[in-house]
Design a protein that fits this description.
The protein has 443 residues and is mostly helical. The chain has 18 helices and 8 strands. 47% of the residues lie in helices and 6% in strands. Helix 3 (61-72) runs antiparallel to helix 4 and helix 11 (232-243) runs antiparallel to helix 12 (251-264).
Length: 443
């Protein structure tokens, strides 16, 4: 794959405020943003999907509102913009069902929470909606009798971990379903027996893979390590709940079991430790020293996993976990940037996700190498800025329908939201850590 070359020489960190303001201004009007994002030529090559999801954090109004809510905390002039986006999303909500943290009522609630104490009535309605949906999904998950889970059973983006983390901050009325979610996820961390072999309970069998290509690639299922779709997500949830005084029986044991498993799955190269994205059945049951594909992203690879391990290590008083997390991030920074396997500047699998993780762990650990890396990553991300692009930062995706296996370069898409769009890049470029990254399980 071609390296994700930047569009211009890197700007300095002093330019970040100007660039963030430009992004925020370009994302002010929901109608104009929708018209640009939903153009028929602005589609992702693999699935042909529109880049406008009005009720999503990834590429819609809630993600845009998060940026303006963050800016409004320091400059009240942005509050009216966030209000307009939240109001428009609320108008569209009546026909929408929840689909995890990143779509529907949960996505809007994530934005509304950032505007507290405003929207008390809307917040109560959205919380009740997400609580009821979480209960329905918990019943469906608990009804499965065969071994194994799908991503919707446990992950951050589609599953119970992400919505449970949101509800953890939603008020006392949500606490019972959060505890029920924790109990279920603790049970998924227990070992299971499959074909006479003991494996982790978060095994995803072939029939529950998210797409047919994954079922073909993992005919005996796989074990996902990442923060977005893997066991690092529940680990981050367990920690967030614990530090907020929400604990169920077995929660600490589940944290230790998952953290130990993640630490034991490290691979090593000349720079240091890294983590695979996913392990096949054979790679889990017959581990070997061979290198495997990884990223240095929030979603997959050392950054997201390191964030979860560092949080858990602090909560349980395990300095070795914290040290392993810091070492993993240092190793990322020591590698050639082409080895990061990042796609452009956006949060999910781009440079701003790496930036936000490093900023969070640097602040928590005080590690001098990580602290020194933050300005470097800011400048690296600013290098993707293009004032002539509609939203300043484009979302880069492989240009082939076969993805990274056959691409020759990148397609530049105009995406507005937090996870895959310009709003998330701008949030990561803000000088403070903020609180917008709760949906990323970083706080």
């Amino acid at each position: 794959m071609k390296h994700s070359t930047r569009t211009r020489p890197a700007l300095s960190t002093s330019d970040a405020t100007e660039v963030v303001a430009l992004v925020a201004t370009r994302l002010t009007d929901p109608e104009s943003v929708a018209a640009i994002s939903d153009r028929p030529d602005n589609v992702e090559p693999v699935y042909g999907a529109s880049q406008w999801g009005p009720l999503t954090l990834a590429n819609g109004l809630p993600g845009m509102a998060l940026l303006h809510a963050e800016l409004a905390a320091a400059d009240g002039r942005w509050a009216a913009v966030a209000h307009g986006q939240i109001s428009r999303a609320a108008e569209l909500m009546s026909s929408q069902a929840s689909n995890g943290l990143y779509a529907g009522p949960a996505a809007l609630l994530a934005a509304v929470v950032r505007m507290e104490p405003n929207y008390a009535t809307l917040r109560r309605k959205l919380t009740a909606w997400v609580v009821a949906d979480q209960q329905t999904r918990l019943r469906a998950c608990a009804a499965r009798r065969d071994p194994g889970v799908s991503w919707a059973h446990y992950d951050v983006v589609n599953g119970l971990s992400g919505t449970a983390r949101l509800l953890l901050d939603a008020g006392p009325e949500a606490r019972p379903v959060v505890e029920e979610s924790l109990r279920y996820l603790v049970s998924r961390c227990e070992p299971i027996i499959v074909e006479g072999t003991g494996v982790p309970g978060w095994w995803v069998p072939a029939e529950l893979q998210p797409v047919a290509a994954d079922a073909r690639q993992y005919p005996r299922g796989d074990f996902n390590l990442g923060l977005a779709h893997g066991i690092a997500g529940p680990l981050a949830l367990f920690t967030a709940a614990l530090v907020r005084g929400c604990e169920v029986p077995g929660q600490r044991d589940a944290m230790r079991r998952t953290a130990t498993w993640l630490l034991d799955r490290r691979k090593y190269d000349s720079a240091g430790a890294y983590w695979p994205c996913r392990l096949s059945w054979d790679e889990e049951t017959q581990p070997g020293p061979e290198p495997v594909f990884t990223r240095a992203a929030w979603c997959y690879g050392a950054p997201g996993i390191a964030a979860a391990l560092h949080q858990a290590g602090q909560a349980l008083g395990e300095p070795e976990w914290c040290a392993a997390a810091v070492a993993g991030l240092r190793a990322v920074l020591d590698r050639d940037e082409r080895a990061w396997n990042l796609d452009g500047p956006t949060v999910c699998h781009g440079t701003s996700g790496l930036l936000q993780v490093v900023r969070r762990v640097a602040a928590a650990s005080g590690d001098p190498a990580l602290l020194a890396a933050v300005p470097r990553l800011v400048e690296h991300t600013l290098g993707f800025a293009d004032p002539d692009a509609p939203f300043v930062f484009a979302h880069l995706v492989p240009d082939s329908p076969l993805g990274r296996h056959a691409d020759t370069g990148y397609r530049r898409l105009n995406v507005a939201g937090m996870l895959e769009g310009a709003a998330g890049v701008a949030c990561a470029l803000l000088p403070s850590t903020g609180a917008w990254d709760t949906a990323l399980m970083l706080v």
